[in-house]
């Protein structure tokens, strides 16, 4: 074991980042105490962890999040059995059953198209398509670039 790896282990760090650690049955995120269960605590990524009762975004508990079903989709999006989360914040207005991530920060459900976590007014979810090479998106009425309408059809 390398000296650096040994020092990380002695300091109590878990996972591949120097963010979460368990030392003397106490949990810390970047030296901020987390009131969690050290016996069931699991590192998920540099910014996310969970125990039997809670999910954490950094040192903050994600209120109402189900630890058993919580999963990380990508570096921005997560989900549990009730909600999708954008950087750990529940996005309660998406239709959970039809929500899908698209390319270039777009997503949609049966009701709306989203850029990041914001609703794109006037976008038609049933005809919306993204060109991941050019970053332009189109629907039956408009062309979009970076979440803004650029032209009408």
Q: Give Rg in angstroms.
A: 20 Å
Total count of helical runs of at least 4 residues: 1
pLDDT < 50 stretches: none
Number of strands: 19
Structural class: mainly beta
Largest sheet: 4 strands, antiparallel
Query: What does the average pLDDT come to?
Result: 96
The helix-strand sequence is: HEEEEEEEEEEEEEEEEEEE
Would you give an account of this structure?
By secondary structure, the protein is mainly beta. The chain has 1 helix and 19 strands. The chain has one helix at 3-11, and strands at residues 20-23, 26-29, 32-34, 42-43, 48-50, 55-57, 60-61, 71-72, 77-79, 84-86, 89-91, 100-101, 106-108, 113-115, 118-119, 129-130, 136-138, 142-145, 148-152. Strands 4-5-6-7 form a 4-stranded antiparallel sheet, with no helix packed on it. It is elongated and about 65 Å long. 19% of the residues are buried. The model has no long low-confidence stretch (mean pLDDT 96).
Please specify the SSE layout and strand pairing.
Elements: H1 3-11, E1 20-23, E2 26-29, E3 32-34, E4 42-43, E5 48-50, E6 55-57, E7 60-61, E8 71-72, E9 77-79, E10 84-86, E11 89-91, E12 100-101, E13 106-108, E14 113-115, E15 118-119, E16 129-130, E17 136-138, E18 142-145, E19 148-152
Antiparallel strand pairs: 1-2, 2-3, 4-5, 5-6, 6-7, 8-9, 9-10, 10-11, 12-13, 13-14, 14-15, 16-17, 17-18, 18-19
């Amino acid at each position: 074991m390398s000296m650096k790896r040994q020092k990380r282990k002695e300091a109590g760090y878990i996972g591949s980042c120097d963010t979460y650690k368990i030392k003397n049955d106490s949990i810390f995120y970047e030296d901020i105490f987390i009131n969690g269960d050290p016996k069931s605590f699991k590192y998920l990524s540099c910014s996310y962890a969970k125990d039997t009762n809670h999910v954490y975004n950094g040192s903050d508990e994600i209120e109402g999040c189900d630890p058993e079903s919580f999963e990380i989709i990508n570096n921005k999006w997560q989900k549990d059995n009730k909600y999708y989360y954008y950087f750990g914040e529940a996005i309660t207005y998406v239709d959970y059953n039809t929500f899908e991530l698209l390319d270039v920060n777009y997503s949609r459900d049966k009701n709306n198209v989203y850029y990041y976590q914001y609703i794109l007014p006037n976008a038609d979810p049933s005809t919306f398509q993204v060109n991941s090479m050019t970053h332009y998106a189109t629907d039956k009425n408009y062309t979009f670039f970076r979440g803004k309408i650029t032209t009408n059809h």
